[in-house]
Specification:
It is built from 2 helices and 12 strands; from the N terminus they run αβββαβββββββββ. The chain is mainly beta. The protein starts with a helix and ends in a 19-residue tail after the last strand.
Length: 170
């Protein structure tokens, strides 16, 4: 619904994470929509890439902030864990839209207070948008959004198929 009711140029992305096989690029923008300032950092070390990325979010009354994550087809897909807290307490004040590698985005899902998992990102899914919203008509709200990617490393297979039934086990 947000995409259809907003005027051009469209959604203001507070932050974007882009995944490739070699790097993770995180672009963040100021909380005030329309600013041309942005901070971009590219991570290439696994311990920096595959860890929890945290974003502090302040929304005015009856407003939302949108975050996105994108990936082409990755050789090793990611599993994503998404958590949202308000004043340190888990909350469901977000909507998540996931797009498959090919085709239209799925129906928006309300974030669960306990968190959500998106699997096969970069294999079956290519993009995700998270809209953190403040339904209070009178006060600003502050949230903490975390996105934790985990790499699904395939298990090593024996060189010749199954293990030999003639090999002694101890």
């Amino acid at each position: 619904m947000l995409v259809h009711v907003l005027p051009e140029p469209g959604l203001w992305l507070q932050a974007t994470i882009t995944e490739t096989d070699d790097a993770t690029t995180i672009v963040t923008r100021p909380e005030q929509p329309g600013s041309r300032n942005e901070d971009s950092r590219t991570l290439t070390i696994g311990s920096e890439r595959f860890t929890t990325h945290t974003f502090d979010v302040t929304t005015g009354p009856l407003t939302a902030r949108v975050f996105s994550m994108e990936a082409g087809e990755l050789s090793v897909p990611l599993d994503l864990e998404i958590h949202l807290k308000e004043d340190g307490t888990p909350t469901d004040h977000a909507w998540i839209v996931v797009a498959p590698l090919s085709g239209k985005p799925e129906t928006p899902r309300k974030h669960r207070a306990g968190g959500m998992k998106i699997d096969q990102f970069g294999r079956e899914r290519r993009a995700m948008w998270i809209a953190v919203f403040n339904s209070d008509p009178n006060a600003d709200k502050t949230y903490e959004l975390t996105i934790a990617p985990t790499r699904k490393v395939p298990k090593a297979q024996p060189a010749f198929g199954k293990a030999s039934p003639f090999k002694k086990t101890r």
